[in-house]
What we know:
By secondary structure, the chain is of the alpha/beta class. It has helices at 3-20, 24-44, 50-58, 105-117, 172-176, 188-199, and strands at 67-74, 81-86, 92-93, 96-98, 121-131, 144-153, 164-170, 206-207.
Amino acid sequence: MELSESITRLKALINTSLHYSSDSYDIERFMDMRKILEELIETYSNETSEKEIALYFDSDVGYVTPKVDIRSVVFNNEDKLLLVKEKKEETWSLPGGWADVGYSPSEIAKKETLEESGLNVTVMNLFKVVDKAKHPYPKSLEYVYKLFFYCVADSFDTKTGLETSEVNFFSEAELMSLGNISIDRNTLEDLLDAFSFHKNSWEGTKFD
């Protein structure tokens, strides 16, 4: 098991135990365990500040479950895939973001696509669900499930959003030479799987 995955699992166990424990001695021991884990995270990730670590622990209370990242797959009439360029990192990714309370997964896919690319879409299929820790994404303190939805656009009149600097469509060949893909949001494998589903939707949903 990867160190980052072990840290995430320990954090979940500690926070869940703190939520359900009523014995003061148990709570004290779990708090000591949390402090030790915070120190391990500081050692493990030099780029993580004390404030970020505190937010990481406090963001999940009660029974801890994975966070959900939702991505939209949209093709134009030339069978090219929609990607948006993130302003902050200057990398290309499928439109998407974290699931929000009060929105269904498909509603998030529609909302994020509109905000980041200007396109209104109809969500057609959930074609891929993966556990981020079990695939070649960069290591993450959060434990994340990624949902990929196949969508159809009402039109192809794109525009940038608050978080995006460019919007464009890419062929499969163009993707292979695109160096600045945001692999935290989607790997090249994810993008190629999108093309595969676009050509052969009867293959069904990929998962795990």
